[in-house]
Design a protein that fits this description.
Elements (H helix, E strand, L loop, with lengths): L3 H11 L1 H24 L6 H14 L3 H15 L8 H22 L2
Helix pairs in contact: 1-2, 2-3, 3-4, 4-5
């Protein structure tokens, strides 16, 4: 669910001192977009929001979450916005976030 090699790569790219801030910004921005998705009942901006989430997820190694966002983005681009399973996407984010936070210290030694 978490690609720890990507997380380590990101930490190495930004530096250990900046890593926590980057993670905080990531989580805040993702949460904002999830709120937008929840409020966009007409799904008018679903493709753009899922594209953003996919990119953010890839940056921080949230592998399963990014794949669901990518699938949803493709469906939305094909005119199938109503078929996008947003609850599954939200659940994958929550699970990924929890795994990330509990496994961070162990996987970044």
């Amino acid at each position: 669910m978490i690609k720890w090699s990507r997380v380590r790569q990101l930490r190495d790219e930004v530096g250990a001192d900046e890593f926590d801030e980057v993670v905080e910004i990531f989580l805040d921005e993702v949460q904002e977009v999830i709120v937008r998705l929840r409020n966009d009942t007409a799904r008018t901006e679903i493709e753009q929001n899922l594209h953003f989430l996919k990119g953010s997820a890839l940056s921080l190694g949230f592998d399963s979450f990014s794949k669901l966002c990518q699938d949803g983005e493709r469906r939305a681009a094909a005119g199938e916005s109503a078929a996008v399973d947003l609850p599954a996407i939200f659940s994958a984010y929550s699970e990924s976030k929890a795994l990330f936070q509990t496994g961070l210290a162990e996987n970044l030694r």
